[in-house]
Amino acid sequence: MLKNHIRPDDGLDKESRKEETKRLQELLTAQQPALREAKLPVVVMVEGWAAAGKGGLINKLISDVDPRFCSVFSLDADRRDADRYPFLYPFFSALPENGKMLFMDGGWMEAAIRDRLCGGLGKEEYRQRILSVNRFERQLRDNGYLVVKLFVHISEKEQAKRQKELLSDRETAWRVSDSDRQQNKEYDRFLDAYEEFMTATGDVFPWHVVDGSGMKKLNYDAFCLLTEAIGASLAAGKICGEPFEADFAMAPTPRLSEVDLSPRLEEAEYRKELDALQERLSRLHNRIYRKRIPVIVCFEGWDAAGKGGSIRRLAYPLDPRGFETWPIASPEPHELARHFLWRFWTRLPRSGHVAIFDRTWYGRVMVERIEGFCSEKDWQRAYNEINEFEADLHDWGAVILKFWLQIDQETQLARFTERQNTPEKQWKITEEDWRNREKWPLYEEAVSDMLEKTSTEAAPWHIIESNDKFYARIKVMRTVADAMEQALKDRN
Fold this sequence. Notes:
Elements: H1 14-38, E1 42-48, H2 54-62, E2 70-74, H3 75-78, H4 89-93, E3 101-105, H5 108-117, H6 123-142, E4 146-153, H7 156-167, H8 178-185, H9 187-200, E5 207-211, H10 215-236, H11 267-291, E6 295-301, H12 307-315, E7 323-327, H13 333-336, H14 342-345, E8 354-358, H15 367-371, H16 376-396, E9 399-406, H17 409-421, H18 431-438, H19 440-454, E10 461-465, H20 469-491
Parallel strand pairs: 1-3, 1-4, 2-3, 4-5, 6-8, 6-9, 7-8, 9-10
């Protein structure tokens, strides 16, 4: 039972506990500059029973810290569109920058259990949620985050008493929701669910059960746990996890040297197929919107391989209200200060919408690997983290299409030269493009590793023969249209 795991009493009298709480409060304030210096991000997740005092506890914890370097997440406020995004979307989006703290009023525990007990989430879907949570927490740990998980426990009788008090005053009655009442009516059922969840998700970051029957004791226990955890992490330093490979079903892909780049399409045939495919994509876009199927299209490839041209032809027939194109450049400072996938989680489409990425999260295992923008551990670990990210998107119901546009070196040189010698195209060519060309063998090795390690059955790579732009554009559009149609069939 939860009550058997509550943090034990320290034996302090009231006055001593008050003085000790004040000291710990000052210690937390003093730890903030050290967190910034160490670039250690901290997530404090406060879970527990409705009316257990979670909001009051968070208010106490943040009362003396510098508000410029902390933020508060509210589960109910930040999950209003939860049904339009993957389960982890609001939690990944809320992650703090390095050196800052995030305090969460409810998190992935409450969201998962609420969906299970109140939202009709099936057993298999719930099992997937547990798997996603454990992956998420492990990724946070491996990328240097500290997560402190508190569960505020009160008895069924105490919860009923507090809810009755809140309901008796119209100024506070709004704080008791229908789901809160249901929780008290089915206290034992929720209790079992909480215990089961904590058992299943306590390996990466442990759960701490604290007694919510009295606020002074609750505040003291929370300050103790939080400052102890921060102190230990500061002493240990920011530790990044080791790379490892999870067991994903893989889809075979050819090596780049084996790709036949001879396919071509005559312009007349190209124009004919282009019109037909754009009309088809326009119809399919309407249908996936009605069925709320998200579509994520990813473009990677050699410089001058034709990504921009393919994206323009693909996007043209889509309803502009239902898609967005994301050109991905070097990360901004606030993006570098978070998990490398954060800037992609925050750009995911709503269900029924399309997101087109012109370059993607695969920069971590290509340019960042080759240019030394991250450590070897970071890019080696990223293969599995990317596979997990895409597995979450697949489980959410997204259609994931990943295109590598392949050309040979001679074709790239011809296109570079044309751009450099054509005034209206010179903006497309930079010194960096020429430098990258000199590193072709390094990039070819990195791309081959990427294709081998991240072409899963849930999100396979499609290699597009792109020496002929007409052929490449048509193959991309046909592949997207076929995938949309298959997704619609699977939903029927």
